[in-house]
Amino acid sequence: MSEDFRRVAEDGVLTVTIDRPQRMNAFGIRAAWELARIIEEADTDPAVRVVVVTGEGRAFSTGADLAGEAAEPQEALEAVNAYIRAIVGASIPVIAKVNGPCAGMAVGLALSADLVFVADTAYFLLPFVGIGLLPDAGTTALVPAAIGRTRAMGMALLGNRIHGPEALASGMVTAVHPAEELDGAVAAAAAKLAAGPREAIAATKRALNASTLAGLDDALRRETEAQVILLKTDDHREGVDAMLSKRPARFTD
Questions:
Q1: Confidence (pTM)
Q2: Does the residue 244 lie in any domain?
Q3: How many domains is the chain built from?
Q4: What is the CATH number of the domain that holds 139?
Q5: What is the pLDDT of residues 184-224, one digit of tens each?
Q6: Are β-strands 13-18 and 94-98 bridged in parallel, bridged antiparallel, or unpaired?
Q7: What family is this (predicted)?
């Protein structure tokens, strides 16, 4: 296991913590593949009944580590798609414990979970257009499925932040709690699921995902095809440089 994640299993609940607080839990391609493997392994382990994914420190995750490891665009996107598919396809329930900012591909990570518990101080952000890209990690399907097309367009095109209470009101998340109460609320939900009927929970998850996320695979394909092109543009290079330099971007395309 890499140093990017901590795993703790107790009473049927596997808690996976993204452990890169120095980067606000942004992570790269190697960690993305590892996260997919962790979910897949948990799903085949009879001792695991629930998975909880959260972040160390003050952030859930700010998405891709743009200053980190280099990778071919196609492989990087396939790695991200792998953990989205693993979470949605798992027979066991996955809970996202969003303890702080959740941005970029981490929005897909959170919304692909079956239950999303959020601290009242947390927010969701799709910053992709600001760096010359389109939203990925399944967010072009997951976000509108949760909050509708118009709100999703606001997030995707304008980069609107959706804070905890607004996320709850819009239907994006399961529950919002004061930050100091989040751990207890998630623990209670996870314990209830761990003690529940495994097959009935799995069947319910499959049925609801089939009804609401039937277009997820097509969305992942469209995102990948378009993103591979956009990642090679001057606008993307300018957007990333501007972000890392903390200056306004000057797009030309």
A1: 0.94
A2: no
A3: 1
A4: 3.90.226.10
A5: 999 999 999 999 999 999 999 999 999 999 999 999 999 99
A6: unpaired
A7: Belongs to the enoyl-CoA hydratase/isomerase family.
